[in-house]
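Posting for a labmate who doesn't have an account.
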Amino acid sequence: MFEGHKVAVVIPARNEAPHLPNVLRAIPAFVDLVYVVDDGSTDGTAAAARAVGDPRVRILRRDKPGGVGAATLAGMKEAAQAGATLLVKVDGDGQMDPQDIPQLLHPLIHEGCGYSKANRFLHTDALRHMPTLRLIGNVFLTFLTKLASGYWRIFDPQNGFLAIRAEVFTRLSHEKIARDFFFENDMLIHLNIHGVKVKDVAIPAHYGEEESDLRIWKVLLTFPPRLLRGLWRRIWEKYVLRDFSPIAVLWLLGGPLMLFGLGYGLWNWALSIWTGHPAPTGTVMLSVLPFLIGFELILQAIVLEIRENAP
């Protein structure tokens, strides 16, 4: 128990036999339950977890890999059904120190938050040890995730060290949440739809000899379109279906206007290069005005969202 709350740690693990025992041994004594979700491992991950001999550990075995999101959701469902009120996700690769769990739980208990997550970028010294490609990709995807989720004060969205209140977790539409490495980003989108207060916590990562299955090129190619789809899903569900808001009007008018202006301008620019004739002033203005008006409307929508999600 932690300050009167039953705490469960969920560890999605695929082929983490070398690192998992050390992670389990570092789990604080106040944690009541530990769920190791073996996501189709072939290296004896489940056996390595059993060998630790911790009576708190429950092992959920998935015969085929379903992804880190699927494994996490499965573990959290089991933990919530077992009566845990605070759910914590810790990866099995040793990059997260379980001794930092109290820092994640504090906002859930004392600050009215429903979800908290670690932020490596608040630790400059630890940031120097982050692989360069991972750092660049994280910064780029952070901006897109801010746009898609509406949480403009949240950084480092790919960080998987997180905690959530069980009552919040049960309200989410689990079947709609991403099952793969997009899980953390998609969670933020769904949390915003439900108006959940989210808090960043300064916790450094620990990089060792472990290798990530997440490839930066794959992330940069697949995440942006999924984030844009998530943006429009959030706007539709939160600001149209659940409670019609002026934010919806700003987005629904601003988006098409800006895209029209940009597309029309690029088309005429290419046409001018092809024919050798510059576009007339009227054509230029027909491109510039919708773009600028659309941009201003979107900017106003973002400002309103920042105010709406202010702490």
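Reply:
Got it, the structure tokens are right above this. Residues 245-308 form one domain.
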